[in-house]
Specification:
The chain has helices at residues 11-15, 24-35, 59-65, 82-89, 105-112, 116-132, 155-168, 184-194, 214-223, 252-261, 269-285; strands at 6-9, 41-47, 74-79, 96-102, 136-142, 172-176, 202-206, 208-209, 228-231, 248-249. It is an alpha/beta fold. Helix 2 crosses helix 3, helix 4 packs parallel to helix 6 (116-132) and helix 8 (184-194) packs parallel to helix 9 (214-223). The chain is globular, with a radius of gyration of 17 Å.
Length: 287
């Protein structure tokens, strides 16, 4: 596997929980600034029920207005069912369909109104749809570092589902810290156990963090072999169910600071500064 670090910027995750609707034009402007930075992938939006996430109801329109002629970044959109996957797969701008797959039965029901068993069937359909339209599927194992519901969690459970996903042909699995329960110990434990077992799978880290714990989380994941990291500029967004209101997305600038110190940051610094300023503008008005 390549030694290159992949940084995935997640404006969708940053925006989706905001109540006030961000005009399509502002979203396009912001994502356009991100496209100049050189991120591996940008998680631009989602194809889910507008009732569930009204903020993302204009994802197709946003995509139609982006100028992708000068970017190396690939685009990802989240889907929760076959219909969303069909809609997303028709758009040539999209490279990846992201599917949130929870190993917490309670969270899967709350998030998608399906049991885990039903979600396996949904994922099989999404993999078929993606295959026919030449897209790849990124599966997010949500509640990957524990859950607040008392559902069982340990490395064997995560391992069991990784084995199942591997057999289904999933090539990219992102371990998601949905409620900010990851720490250096369980991050290291999971990646050190899983990465050597599944050489065909690219493992990613979608970590949520407080302002003080970002370094130990990135450091534990990287030193355990993870090369794919999700972030959101200034840590905007994150899961509303996190117990600590300071818990947000992993701030992209912290990822860049860490990988610059390792001489592994290939992103354009000036373009990042410009995108950072755009984020400040958009999120100071809409929050």
């Amino acid at each position: 596997m390549s030694s290159k670090i992949k940084i995935i910027e997640c404006p969708r995750d940053a925006m989706q929980g905001i109540k006030n609707f961000i005009p399509t034009k502002r979203k396009v402007q912001y994502i356009q600034s991100l496209l100049r930075v050189g991120f591996d992938t940008i998680d631009v939006g989602s194809f889910v029920s507008p009732k569930a996430i009204p903020q993302m109801s204009d994802t197709a329109e946003v995509l139609s207005q982006l100028d992708l002629s000068k970017t190396i970044s690939k685009l990802l959109a989240i889907v929760a069912n076959e219909r969303g996957a069909e809609d997303a797969s028709k758009l040539e701008q999209i490279n990846y369909l992201g599917y949130p797959f929870s190993i917490s039965e309670n969270f899967q029901m709350r998030n998608t109104h399906k049991t885990i068993a039903q979600s396996v069937f949904t994922l099989e359909s999404i993999l078929n749809i993606a295959d026919k339209s030449n897209k790849q599927v990124v599966v997010y194992i949500s509640m990957g570092f524990g859950n607040p519901y008392g559902d069982p969690w340990n490395v064997d459970i995560v391992g069991k589902w990784t084995e199942k996903l591997n057999k289904m042909g999933v090539k990219i699995v992102s371990l998601s810290d949905t409620i900010g329960s990851s720490n250096a110990e369980n991050i290291q434990y999971l990646f050190l156990n899983l990465i050597p077992l599944y050489p065909n799978i690219e493992f990613g880290a979608h970590l949520h963090t407080t302002p003080n714990s970002w370094f130990e989380k990135i450091d534990a994941a990287y030193n355990s072999g993870c090369k794919r990291f999700d972030g959101a500029i200034q840590g905007f967004g994150g899961c509303p169910m996190a117990k600590d209101e300071l818990t947000g997305n992993m701030p992209t600038e912290k990822l860049l600071s860490y990988f610059t110190s390792k001489k592994l940051n290939n992103l354009d610094a000036l373009s990042f500064e410009s995108a950072y300023n755009e984020a400040t503008k958009i999120f100071s008005v809409f929050h």
